[in-house]
Amino acid sequence: MTAALVLYRASGDPVSTAFRPGALGAADPFAALREIAWQGIGGMSAGRLRFDGALEIARFPHQETLVVVQGELILETEGAAPLVLKPDSGVVIATGAALRISATQPTLAVFCAADCPQPVQPGVFPLVAEADFKPSLNALPKEILLGDAPQCRSDNVVDESSIGCKIGTWDSTPYHRIVRAHPVNEFMHILDGGVRFAQTDGSVVTVEKGDALFVPKGEAVGWESSERVAKFYVVQTVPAEGGK
């Protein structure tokens, strides 16, 4: 299995990732719409979904991050202005949220979801590229770097400690590091720049602005960027387990 699973390419080029139809449980509102690329421990999954029409959801059954890559989604919750998601914008929907989701045209979104029975942060949270960046607290170890240390910043919109999950926006100056086991499950949607992910077999997966991918915990990948990179991210710390 390729370590870096590409979920979408903004260029329109096909991806080699294998998808299968499936639901994330009996109450999944997108059950008939999903294309799942990976599933693992804790109900975590990643893939894409195609949506057109409207859904009234009384109680969202899990935590889910959605990033629109084609079309437009409209999310409506009581007491708030409608949230309109166009390409390269996203949202985090917590377990228990009541909302209406609609699309006036065929829409494609990439997703990363996880079981979260009792969320610390209930609600619906937009993801924005122009985030409130703060210096990242966890510096990369010197022994894994192949060159200068980067300056990294992040903005955690959701810090769901109940399941070890953080979601938000991140950016970094260019850097290069060795191929190593990825320490977390991570979903990424690239907002700016490009990254080359080296793999143990010598192949390289390249992603650019508008692309989305998922790297399971324990899969060995490197990182090389030659310009500023910004991304939406979902990271979850869990015991490593083979996904499918």
TrEMBL record:
Pfam families, sorted: Cupin_3
Where does the (S)-ureidoglycine aminohydrolase cupin domain lie?
167-233
Q: Which InterPro entries match?
A: RmlC-like_jellyroll (IPR014710), RmlC_Cupin_sf (IPR011051), UGlyAH_Cupin_dom (IPR008579)
- Identify this protein by name: Enzyme od the cupin superfamily protein
Question: What are the top taxonomic ranks of the organism?
Answer: Bacteria, Pseudomonadati, Pseudomonadota, Betaproteobacteria, Burkholderiales
